[in-house]
Known about the structure:
- By secondary structure, the chain is α/β, with parallel strands linked by helices.
- It has one domain: Periplasmic binding protein-like II (D-Maltodextrin-Binding Protein, domain 2, 3-Layer(aba) Sandwich).
- It has helices at residues 57-60, 73-81, 92-102, 134-146, 149-158, 161-165; strands at residues 2-5, 14-29, 47-50, 67-70, 87-91, 113-125.
- It has a six-stranded mixed sheet with strand order 1-6-2-5-3-4.
- Helix 1 (57-60) links the parallel strand 3 (47-50) and strand 4.
- The radius of gyration is 18 Å and the shape is globular.
Amino acid sequence: xAIFFRASKWDKFVEYCSEIRKxxxxxxxxxxxxxxxxxxxxxxxxxxxxxxxxxxxxxDNDAGIIKYSVPNYETMLKLLSAGRIDSGVGNAIVxxxxxxxxxxxxxxxxxVISLGTKTQWLQxxxxxxxxxxxAKFQKAVSELKAEGKLDEILTSYAGAGWSELNQSx
Length: 169
């Protein structure tokens, strides 16, 4: 059992148990370079993106966006805050956590744009010996979501800022 983004390439290997949450995939800019729309990314000198990561069809296929591959979000934020790249894109929750952890808030533009969403799912391997428990897990996840417990757990680890960056705009 694990929580991952749903991806059609894994459909034959997993049983999707419950949707956990939708996560905003965002673009953000270095301080002093406002980001107002998708087309602003085409004016960026370099846009940091995790290696081998698909953001969206529009982003992935836009030859006007100069993509700069980075190995992880920490490196992306370090380059962004130092002004070595103009923009960075990725998971709003992870970026929010790392921005706060490393103190980059003052080095980045506050306004971000959404490039889409991806959905996290609780998943079981098709080979799991516990597929008979899926209905119980679905009920438990539903109750945890309704009570706000999943958000409370995430906030305890990622801080309160994750929900602001994860809102659609």
